[in-house]
Design brief:
Structural class: alpha+beta
Strand order of the largest sheet: 1-3-4-11-6-9
Order of helices and strands: HEEEEEEEEEEEH
CATH superfamily: Galactose-binding domain-like
Amino acid sequence: MNKSILQIALASTLLAGVAQAAPFQNGSFEIGPAPGATFITLGAGDTSITGWEVTGAGIDYIGGLWQPADGNRSLDLSATAAGGIQQTFDTVAGHNYQVTFSLAGNPSTPPLVKTVQVLATGGVATNYTFDISFSSLADMRWAPQTYTFTATGAATTLSFTSLDNTALGPALDNVVVTDLTPTPAVVTPVPTLSEWALVLLATALGALGLRGRRGRGQ
């Protein structure tokens, strides 16, 4: 195979791999199938909520069943049993990221304390709990939570997994991912005095040369 053709093929393959990820998206789950006045159940492998894939035993995609933390939709991460979601998105290796999210729990049934595990590629699996004792469908008492990780590559998978093996589990909404690593400022180099002197000398020599050509009738 011609070397240039091989190089183009290799570059195309690499670009295709990079294109599999995308910027983080749809953290409040607003883009997806209509969950109606209550909810719909989505099984493992379902990707109908834009950006997300359902894992485990499935989730309930909440419409009007309870008060969301942001927008009009949210999730119960346990359907028939413990389920979850995950999303793969673009990151910069070595950058520190912060994930904020709103956590609550389905208030309709025990356990009183709902638990979700959060994990990003290369990060540490961390459990978060929510006590439903004082919450209700009309007042979910959403609690803000924070998870941080350092990206290990150009793409990172972020997952939220219920640890409640029941039909009703932790509730999730308003996921936001922020790159905490400052972008280096672009510094425009300032010419040194010697560089300015060379510029002025070149300009002067150019002017003298032009004047000489004119004096010779050129």
